[in-house]
Design brief:
The complex is a heterodimer of chains A (112) and B (111). Chain A is an all-beta fold and 112 residues long. Chain A is built from no helices and 11 strands. Chain B is globular. Classes of the chains: A mainly beta (112), B mainly beta (111).
């Protein structure tokens, strides 16, 4: 599964605090994605990256920022967490534009 | 919004074939049909994809109608471990990242 790890796997935080989630991959895949999954909404794309320092917004990007300083790591930051950002966050990667996506195990974030 | 329509839930007896339908009546000529599944809050797992010909791999078969407006995912001998939510997605192949997940079909395989 493209050697994808996510950290932390679980986090509880308070409203207004900054939070950073990390996605790490070992397959040198070019493309990386952050999704969130909420009951009744399926998976929704937050941000994605098509290379080092190349990122773009997805459908639900408000309140989130991302960074990719090296191929293997894609960071998702909530500058000031809100309760509406309580969700399960999945990272995904794929090798090139013709490849299928591989998903990480997810991070469960609770914002109190 | 998702461009596919799937039944919200289905049951299947263990050992029998599971046939999961998907409607995608607005599919474009350059869009592929992808199937993923998600087992109990794990990350989604790729199953199969196709353009217009039927496809088969070690996990499943994909049957696409001639007009490409619908498709069926077939798990030939369902096991309890196939219990999951199955997502049908249409996407342009060279934009593999642009996946829009709908609600999917919750398949329950029963003994």
């Amino acid at each position: 599964d493209a050697g994808i790890t996510q950290s932390p796997r679980h986090k509880v935080t308070e409203t207004g605090t900054p939070v950073t989630l990390r996605c790490h991959q070992t397959e040198n895949h070019r493309y990386m994605y952050w999704y969130r999954q909420d009951p009744g909404h399926g998976l929704r794309l937050i941000h994605y990256s098509y290379g080092v320092k190349d990122t773009d917004k997805g459908e639900v990007s408000d309140g989130y920022s991302v960074s990719r300083s090296k191929t293997e790591d894609f960071l998702l930051t909530l500058e000031s967490a809100t309760s509406s950002q309580t969700s399960v966050y999945f990272c995904a990667t794929h090798r090139d534009s013709a490849d299928t996506q591989y998903f990480g195990p997810g991070t469960r974030l609770t914002v109190l | 919004d998702a461009k596919t329509t799937q039944p919200p839930s289905m049951d299947c007896a263990e050992g029998r074939a599971a046939n999961l339908p998907c409607n995608h009546s607005t599919i474009s000529g350059n869009e592929y049909v992808y199937w993923y599944r998600q087992i109990h809050s794990q990350g989604p797992q790729y199953i199969i994809h196709g353009l217009k010909n039927n496809e088969t791999n070690e996990m499943a078969s994909l049957i696409i109608t001639e007009d490409r407006k619908s498709s069926t995912l077939i798990l030939p001998h369902a096991t309890l471990r196939d219990t999951a939510v199955y997502y049908c997605i249409v996407a342009i192949y060279n934009q593999g990242g642009k996946l829009i997940f709908g609600q999917g079909t919750e398949l329950s395989v029963k003994p």
